[in-house]
Amino acid sequence: MFSGGVLCMKGLLSILLMSAVITVPNKALSTPILPSLLLSQPNREEHLDQKIQVAFPEFAVVYLKSGNMTTGNFIDLNNRSLIISFKGYTTGIPLNEIKSIEFKDQVLIPADETVICQRSNNQCRPVPFNQDQDQEPTILENIPITNLSLFQGAKTALLTVSNTSQNEGRENINYLSNENINIINSLEIDESGELITLTLIPTKRK
Questions:
Q1: What domain range is 82 assigned to?
Q2: Bridge partners of 150?
Q3: Is 143 helix (H, G, I), strand (E, B) or coil?
Q4: 40 vs 26: CA distance, rounded Å
Q5: Which domain of life does the protein's organism represent (predicted)?
Q6: DSSP code of 145?
Q7: 112 and 27 share a domain?
Q8: Are residues 6 and 86 in the same domain?
């Protein structure tokens, strides 16, 4: 009776041990495979911020959502309105009323990225601006207007461009270095007045 009980216990123990082993052809795994390890882990995107210097040409052609158009000398741009002047009269246009802005005429080229241009001087060189500049235009879409840091009355600003390591347009964005000055050719505003699309033309400083 006793020896028969021992044999039964050994048989039961063998069955339990066999059930705890996952059998793979020619191999036995003593450690269970967790289902979560079989799933591919999502790639984490690394967010990169780049600050580039941009310049506003002197004259603005403003296309309104109403279908009308107005023009004037560029004075200022903030997260609420565009300020322009014409024949001594200054006006502010709310961004949510603007469809797009096209910039023309003269532009101030700062000597380097540390210079803030308000008027022509030995550090801010005035040059005629046209669309046939040295480089092809680069388009940046869905940029928050708050990413544009413009000192009041200045014709240059810093633009913060957020990018990800897997963004297909990363090469174009990286091309916008501060070795050049990036002239704003046009600016489009979305329905909310909070996001903008910029067309930039990189241009040599000297």
A1: 47-204
A2: 157
A3: strand
A4: 26
A5: Bacteria
A6: G
A7: no
A8: no
